[in-house]
Specification:
Elements: E1 2-4, E2 15-23, E3 29-33, E4 38-45, E5 47-52, E6 55-60, E7 63-67, E8 73-77, E9 84-91, H1 95-101, E10 110-112, H2 118-128, H3 136-153, H4 160-181, H5 188-195, H6 199-210, H7 214-229, H8 237-243, H9 249-260, H10 264-274
Helix pairs in contact: 2-3, 4-5, 4-6, 4-7
């Protein structure tokens, strides 16, 4: 069983390029060769070997290997106990980071997953998705995310380098949350709960990365948005205040002056004078 899929324009961040399953004959091999996308193999039964970078790995049921794009690899089924495996080809802008979170690197392309048969079930659901029409591509992408989430959850403990990468991800999540919700009455606790981290830890991490507290970042973001709205003559200062999350116009004016050095009214007048 094998199905090839076109490159996705709907999900450029992550998408399947192919998937399939094969019961290999004794000694069946592929390569040496290179691939143009990521290709994840998961052993369902039997044994075989995978070679990359001059290193040979012997694998069996519950193990798998990842082929990276443009890397020469070779793999072969055992002559006496040939493997059966399923595979998932994929690509996208988020693929590298997700694989890194799962501990899958060019220097460590092997993974283990023997908790249950979910990987095989995801393959079956991908195959069954043919009954879908316009939603099939989204469904396949969702199943791919579920598959990679297993590898992330059950992968090795994070390395210092990966922890650093995760810190950057958390900081970006804070910034994204503020960007989407700054007009609302949000708190630091709301942000920490959304991200799923302890409030104190998140605040410490954010300040360490940006040399700015989350609260100060939120205030500056709101005030900068208010400045962008000053050019709209249809909006009063009170309207702008409410639009950036301050129902109290006096409090807004006080904070605005502290950040910008002048009152909202004076700032607007200067902006109009320049234009």
């Amino acid at each position: 069983m094998i199905e090839y899929l076109p490159r996705s324009k709907q999900h450029p961040e992550l998408h399947l390029t192919q998937f399939g399953m094969e019961d290999c004959t004794p000694g069946h091999f592929f390569g040496p060769a290179v691939r143009s996308h990521y290709l994840l193999h998961y052993v369902l039964s039997g044994e075989g070997v995978f070679e990359v970078g001059g290193i040979q790995y012997r694998l069996r049921k519950g193990q798998g290997f990842l082929i990276f794009p443009d890397i020469i690899t070779y793999y072969q089924a055992d002559p006496a106990n040939p493997w059966s495996y399923c595979w998932f080809g994929f690509d996208g802008t988020s693929a590298k980071l997700l694989l890194k979170q799962a501990g899958l690197l060019k220097t460590s392309p092997i993974f283990h997953y023997d908790a249950d048969d979910r990987i095989y079930r995801y393959l079956q659901l991908m195959n069954d998705s043919r009954e879908f029409g316009k939603a099939r591509e989204t469904r396949l992408t969702g199943l791919l995310y579920l598959l990679l989430s297993l590898l992330v959850e059950f992968g090795p403990a994070a390395s210092p380098e990966l922890k650093e990468t995760r810190a950057e991800i958390y900081v970006e999540k804070v910034k994204d949350f503020i960007e989407m919700n700054y007009p609302q009455k949000i708190t630091i606790e709301d942000i920490a709960q959304f991200i799923g981290l302890n409030r104190s830890y998140l605040c410490s991490l954010f300040k360490q990365r940006l040399q700015l507290s989350i609260q100060d970042y939120l205030i500056r973001y709101r005030i900068n948005k208010a400045c962008e709205m000053m050019g709209n003559a249809e909006l009063s200062i009170a309207d702008i205040s409410r639009s950036v999350g301050y129902n109290d116009a006096l409090l807004f004016s006080k904070i605005f002056k502290k950040v910008k050095g002048s009152s909202p009214k004076h700032y607007r007048a200067e902006a109009y004078a320049k234009n």
